[in-house]
């Protein structure tokens, strides 16, 4: 495979080094607005570049900083007439000859000592020595400093990319043939054959200084035995000695020439590497017979360090030292930085599908990989960037995205919902009489994703029927699906290998098990063979062995130390919520408390799974400016150490049984869901109030005394009804969400308490927890039933099941059902806030659903067909109307069906109270207790 040309920045760095100075400016760019709402802006970047004798700046702006820098670098290259060319030999023989010449060039040309090459740092330190040691450096220092040498070794044998020992073999044999250098016959030293001139030595010593004062550097010893814990060691650098000599002492290597060095780990700007002692090997000085031989099968140094190998993507032998020490082109001093347990576990975390999501938000304990993609509220790296980063960290090829245009003739008017994660419905699930013509509906897009090994062997393929109105949304949503699949798979990796099942085809995924397991063999050996199935006690790989059942999404967190009055503004499903929080590890005896993580402003969307379940449960129980504490489930030890940058060493030996995790949370701001904001901005009064007024009108016309709200959520309808004069004597709400019912109970309790002070009688109110597709005899025969903007949150078959159950079993006198009118969406879409990342596109395809949680949105014809069939089947009449708009084309924004029970359909049914009461009574007024 031909080598890729270097990036514009890389080319300039090779030419100018630190003399290329980039200045990135962040600016706010207007992206339009919605009537009644504040103008929207987004952050974009422009870049200025200063070179010796040349200054350039980007004429436009860019969404990402790195794109602005690369654009400025490209402008400079164009002005300088420099063409980046990948100058890499194409055959092993050519690469071998160039490797010999390159190694020789480091030593025979004294001008090299005046360059900014990091190898000069190594040479300058060794030039301070005396006797035979002067100018002598380990061969592995060359491999650590020179990318070109490693590239040439990969051309000679692609396996060299993954084996530092093989690289050392090639270098040793090439050095044997390199003119002007001396190589030890017994060790892996290399030096110039001729003494350097005094002028060259002075030049090197002036340019590259040694360690003037003793320096102590923290590093991590990664044992090759998985049962042994990684631990902190301290490397003392002193006496202007070459630093690899002290690394050799920690590894008990015979000398520094026997210390091998991995590629850099983590950020490209970092010098974090793994150091390990070379096994006992002998090399054959012949390119055609490059052989590595290990002496003694029982030699511990010949044992592969699986953890270190997994981290680096290379084969590491024996115990390894993870350290941040080295010379760079950017600095003439020896660069050192402590590597602690936090660093180690963050490196491991970054290799997980959700790891970079957590770290990009700087919220390791709070953030989770969201379950849906929302262009309006997604925070941190995009799904595509996360997937690409995951593949790079796993040493896979870059993901392949194949976007195809789907003709409008293949989709229906409800065929796409790209706003925030809701996929389009396939044609089989839509009514045939509502297919739009090509002139009415633009095409949409779908995206196939392939994940391949470095050898371009396919591991995973994803191709679903979902379509999206924008190409970028197709890529982002498909990327998220693949990430979620990988995330679920990684949670199984501590399962015993004989129980680990890898399905070949499921939910649009096609897996190639043999190739997949072969590519992830090292990952499986690290995460799967820990001898532990409890993520809470498996500290060697901690959070990466999460064989735990799926958490119940409706669990309610118990809050303590609640502060602040109830403002009435609370987070609800789909709302964008900003909080401040701290997460602390507290000793049960209260002796110590360690602050692990904190955020002054952390924003996420409720209902997308963007934070842990307990944290979201806490937030949804608070209103704006309220604060509370709660004790969370203790995360695995590895996540704690990854978060605890300051206390990682102190916490490394803390027992899980002696501590607990405490969150302190305050709700700062709540932005309503986009759907609600549109309704308030575009309709007066808002659609929600219009729906309440519609219900009140029918209540009073019917003189209804009992009402049940199916899918009451947080009780907004029930709460609103208390503000209107009605004939109601009993209000009942049913919902599947405990969190919503908890909020409804608090709101109703507060309002009914006030009404009871001024009125002799107030309505009875009851809240039940249960599914509206299940019949409960306690709600049989109510005067009126409401189901407002609920059925679109269900699958279509469940919506039909609800219709059948409510009309055949609950049998209210009147049932009011409302749902969004999909045909009205183009009006809302043109008026809605524009996407913060994309420009407006008049040919963007089928308009989006109003909420990412909507499973479908029906046209008038589809809704009327559904309702008419139900009415005929269950002896009800039905009439259609709506709210929002004039009712003329394209109809009302919210369409409504009013079912009325026929006079000949009033006979009673036999009720079995023991078997027909599946609902759980959650709250009741009077004598109500509010659930916590």
TrEMBL record:
GO MF annotation terms: metal ion binding; RNA binding; small RNA 2'-O-methyltransferase activity
Entry cofactors: Mg(2+)
Entry's Gene Ontology BP terms: methylation; regulatory ncRNA-mediated gene silencing; RNA metabolic process
Residue ranges of every copy of the Methyltransferase type domain listed in the record: 708-805
InterPro entries named in the record: Hen1, HEN1_dsRBD2, Hen1_Lam_C, Methyltransf_12, SAM-dependent_MTases_sf
Domain Small RNA 2'-O-methyltransferase Hen1 La-motif C-terminal residue range list: 216-351
Catalysed reactions, as listed in the record: small RNA 3'-end nucleotide + S-adenosyl-L-methionine = small RNA 3'-end 2'-O-methylnucleotide + S-adenosyl-L-homocysteine + H(+)
Entry EC no(s): 2.1.1.386
Pfam family, one: Hen1_LCD
UniProt keyword list: Magnesium, Metal-binding, Methyltransferase, RNA-binding, RNA-mediated gene silencing, S-adenosyl-L-methionine, Transferase
UniProt record similarity statement: Belongs to the methyltransferase superfamily. HEN1 family.
Protein name: Small RNA 2'-O-methyltransferase
Taxonomic lineage from the root: Eukaryota, Viridiplantae, Streptophyta, Embryophyta, Tracheophyta
